[in-house]
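$ run holo --ligand "flavin-adenine dinucleotide" --emit tokens
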Amino acid sequence: MDYFLTEEQQMIVDVARQITEEMIIPQRAELDEKEEFPAEILKAIAKADLFGLYIPEEYGGFGGGCFEMVLALEQFGRGCVGIATSFAASALGAYPILISGSDELKRKYMPVIARGEKWAAFGLTEANAGSDASGIQTTAVLDGDEWVLNGTKQWITNGGDAQIYSVIAITDRSKGPRGASMFVVEDTDPGFSYGAKEKKLGIRASSTRELIFKDCRIPKERLIGRQGTGFFTVMKTLDLSRPGIASLGVGLGQAALDEAVNYAKQRVQFGKPVISFQAVQHILADMAIQLEASRSLVYATARYINTEPKDMAKYSSMCKVMATDMAMKVSTDAVQVLAGYGYMREYPVEKMMRDAKILQIYEGTNQIQRNVIGQALNKEYSRN
Ligand SMILES: Cc1cc2nc3c(=O)[nH]c(=O)nc-3n(C[C@H](O)[C@H](O)[C@H](O)COP(=O)(O)OP(=O)(O)OC[C@H]3O[C@@H](n4cnc5c(N)ncnc54)[C@H](O)[C@@H]3O)c2cc1C
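-- output --
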């Protein structure tokens, strides 16, 4: 379907597609097998100027928004969700600074992130605080001109590979949800270290580690926004970034459909290509319907978010649920169409199915997204 992209937007798609075809697809199986961080591919993405897509021009970026990120992420997701996650997580780490940071912080960090010279990461989750982020235990205490952080963040994408970390910590426990604040921590800060790299089901090219703060001292200017606004910044960050996760689902769904149709056309059983069996055609038709419906909602949502509306949370959650549930279903169906061959690592669909699962979990599980949508509906209909 023609989504009537502008010339600039089409250029983003073309550049991202070229990197996907020339670098990501040829290397994805090896990076997945070796569980290797895709440093060289990220450098190529930086060289193509795509790290600054969502960053305003005054801070060295391209000046685009959520939609421009969605376009690039869809292409990278078509190649490999693990590699694409490493790219997406840098934006997730940058958004808090962009949303709430001082001009000084933006000038210090945005240009290097936009050029892809440094990678970012986002530290919210802890061992006992997943969906219930209000349960975080990491603390930050002001001591003279420095904040002192103590605690451990868990399952942080790009942990140990990024140089810039946006981290939330409790600054005043007595204030409840208004008692948390966000900070920028740099990889070289004293008292900051990492846990071992996690072993995962999928997205194995993406690195996931603990962030460990033991009397980690950072200058007081690294506070992002005002003290007590940490959860506001986290929620806004996730609203902006979830359509990106949805677009990884769209890219993965497209790749799974391509593999399934191409295979069904050439695989012969009972003297005919299996695509000639109506049962197979119906699986493919359902895959195509769900994929295009998801792409339409993701594009419409991302375009809407570019206008900075107040009610973005509901739509951001809706497109994340729809496109990532679709990616799980469509990649599972692709394995079914390829059947025994689909189950083998020789074909890419088994990796797609493994990779799809994370999309329903990170940046808030799809159950939590449904809670957000349900709560928004409840509020809306109470007003009418
Ligand atoms: C590979 C990977 C990368 C990640 N990257 C990052 C990162 O970069 N930064 C970061 O901060 N975090 C990251 N995370 C953490 C991720 O965001 C959390 O795993 C996720 O938010 C869910 O938390 P949990 O796993 O603790 O599940 P839990 O909160 O323990 O949930 C368990 C189950 O209960 C359900 N549930 C919980 N509460 C409710 C409720 N109120 N209503 C309905 N159902 C509910 C959940 O949906 C789930 O099915 C990553 C996780 C993984 C696996």
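-- notes --
The two ends are 36 Å apart (CA to CA).
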